[in-house]
Structures are given as C-alpha cells and as structure tokens.
Amino acid sequence: MIEIKNVEFHYTGLDKGGLKNINLKIKNGECVLLCGASGCGKTTLTRLINGLIPHFYKGELKGEVIVNDKKIWEQELYSLAGMVGSVFQNPRSQFFSVDTDGEITFGPENLGLQKEEILKRKESVITELNLHELMNRSLFDLSGGEKQKIACGSVAALLPQIILLDEPSSNLDWSAIRDLREMIKLWKRQGKTIIISEHRLWYLKDVIDRAIYLEKGIIVKEWMRNTFVALSENELASYELRPVNLEERYIQEISGDKLSTENYICKSANKNELSGESLADKIVIKDLYFTYNPKKYLFFKKKLSPADENICTLRIPFLSAKLGEIIGITGNNGSGKSTFLRCLCGLEKTCIGKVLIDGKFYTGKNLTKSCYMVMQDVNHQLFTDSVITEVMLSMEHPNEKKAEEILLSLDLLDYKNKHPMALSGGQKQRVAIASAIAANARILLFDEPTSGLDYRHMKEVSALLKKLAKEKKTVFVATHDPELVAECCDQTIQIVDGYAKQVN
Predict the structure, then answer these.
(1) pLDDT digits (tens, 9 = 90+) for 149-158
(2) 3-state class of 404 per DSSP?
(3) Is domain 1-83+161-167+189-246 annotated with CATH 3.40.50.300?
(4) Would the pTM count as exceeding 0.90?
C-alpha cells in the first residue's frame, strides 16, 4: 500500500513544478497511470514515492508518504532500492556499469546474493524482456531505446514490489513498446504495484487499472480504466492528452515493425540524377557509408568499395529531398536512425560520402556549420546557466528579443532565467529545439524531438517544424512518434539494419 497524505512540495529556486495538497492511495498490485501536460508534477510525484525527494531533490516539503507501512522520508535512500524500483526517463542517469550484462547484475550483486541466484535472475530478465540481442554489448553503443530496455531489465532483476516508470516508452519503437507492455502485464501477474508516468497512452489501454490526471501540481481528475479508455479524442485533447485508440497497424507502418532488409537498398544515382539542373533546390546524399570500426573504415576508404555489407554499418547509395521538406526517419531501435543524423551533420569521423545542397558539395566543417542537430539526450547539449543564454549561445549574432520570441513560441518564456538542468525532461527538449531554431542553419536534424512531450507540445513542435520548412529549412526528424509523422512529414525514410528506403 502506498499512502500520500496532505503532501505539498516546491523545488528550491523554482516557482513551478511542485505539488499541492496531494492525497492518494494506491493498493498493492494496482497499476496506475499518472498523466497530464509536461511539467504538471508527474515526475515529482514518482520522486516522492522512491525517496529521491527529499534525499536528493531539495525543497520545501510538507505531509507524509508511507510505503508498505514505512515513512519514506525516515528511510535511507539505499534501503529503498529493493522495495521501490525506478526506470527514469533518461536511462543513462541510472547506469553504473559499462556493459549490458554488468548493468543487469549490478543490483543483485550489491544485495550480496549468491552467484547462482544472480545468474538465475539475469537469465529470467533476459527472457522476459527479450534482451538476448542486447547482451555482451557496451552501453555506450546502444540506441536510446535499447538503453531504456536495459534499464527496465536492471530494475526487474532487483525483484522490487513497487515499480515506477517515468516516460518508459519515450525512446522505444513499436516492437519494444510491445515488449514493455508484456513486461508490465507480467509484473501485474506477479502482484507488483506499478506506477507509470506517461504521455503515450495507447499501449496502456488494456494494462492500467486507474488513471490519475494532474494539472499544475494538483490531482484534478481520476478515471477507472473502462471510463478512461472510453474518452473521445476531443475529450483527451481538452486535457492535453494523446489519443488512446491509435490503430496498431498504422503504428507498425510508421515504426517499421515488420520491416526487413529485403528491397531496402536504395538505388545508385545515375548521371541524369546528378546533373546541375536536377540538383537545384535539393539536398542529395550519395554513397554515404559508415562503420564503427576504424580499421574497416580505412579498408573501404582505400578500396573505394563501401558497398560491402560485412564492412558497413550504414549503407545509403542515394537519397534526395527538396529543400524546405520535412523528412521523417523511421525504423526500429538500433536500425541506424541516430547514426544517419550524426553522419549527415559531420559528427562521425568514420563516415564517407557526398552531401550536395543546392548543387554544392558540403564536407567536414562546412557541413557541420550548415547543420544543427538536437540530440536524443538533450543533456549533452545544454551548457549555460540559464535558458535565455542557452538559446542565444546558438545565434551568430546574439539577440535577446529574438531569443524571447522563440521561447514564447515554445511556451518557455516563463523559464528564461531558470537553469536548464532544473527543468523537466520535456522542457529541456523544448529548450534544445529553441536553440536549433536560433542557430538558423540550413539543415536541422531532430532526434526524437517529441520524446517526453504531451499532446499540446507535440502539436506545437509539429507546427514549428512546418514553419521552419516554409522558411526553406530542410528538416530531418528521427522518430518513433506516428502522430508527429502524420502531422508534419512530407516524406518518410525507413531504415532497417543500416539500409534506407524512401517510402514516399
């Protein structure tokens, strides 16, 4: 049993993002969804339950949180790990090892379990979460979605009675979300209490027992599952919630769930396709090949035969798009979407190929200057001590008024003087997008830009991308978000095991 009694909390130094008058009971074995707009207090509520507040996050705190008859604030943080397991929105923040096997066994090893029990738990988790292909891998080489799956595995290995999931699907493809849903169902059958903070709702419609809606730090609505699932899309939109009943077939088509490498080798360009006239007002990618192995890179660079499947991780003989288009990059976790974006903006040294923009070749520093990338983990590109300074940092000629206009368009103006690292995951994402807009680059690359965003902010990001396209910016968007693709993408490129195919 989880009991939250008359809780109020306000983060030190922040006017927003706290909780007010929270009273909540969650029964043993219940699966509860926490939903609401970005910054409404979902993550803060989970931090109360796992003890991160007040042990790690400081602020003004009143009330009580009782878990299994124990007052959370009287317990040491390390003692709560075996009782409450947490999967964070950013899985990197909870990794302790450098490889996947070590990460899954880290928790049981620190509990002092016998080797046989540790191995038993490891094998059980691998099977239950379908993690076989991720074993014996470096954590640094995993995609965002793959890291999320390992984080779920490391928590599952601890066998906690309560599991907290903060935006667990934000970086997952449809296939991985299906695995996650089955894992949640398994935890339910095992009698575990599950609390999920989430914007994507469709995969949870037959999983949750109850939905709790927060607004500005207050619980304002509760629904039982049947009532929640029956809400219309217009009703959900009025609460800034995403649709519940998305067609699975549509999601599969967008995410590439059923993709195979067959027929996915893009055609090579002929002379006519590379004529001066045909290249006007276009971006063309020709003979783009990449490998993570530097020795193999030197081999195919010298031999000039990059089409060797055994050598290349990414193989794109030819792709083209009109300047001012929005191109959706879809495919399963680990297929090469993020790698493609990094290659396109010149961040990968072991990549060869040609990028032509409006008929001119761009390589090295010139390519990097012409592109701006918003990374999947935005913490890697937040450098300053205020939001407004962060946006102006991207400008060739810093302009505070222009920066404020950009922040206003992303509903961030109230946070302009706040430290970026003090914001929620969704708010950080929008700050990075604001920086991309401020950079004024010809090509903008977004890696999961709607990860962690609610329905309203997803729509706003879509509108901003379309505005950028009208200004002749070419936008590449790597995403698992079918709603975003439907909202704004002019064409879609699917990537499967390093191969790419232009779909439309």
Answers:
(1) 899 899 989 8
(2) helix
(3) yes
(4) no
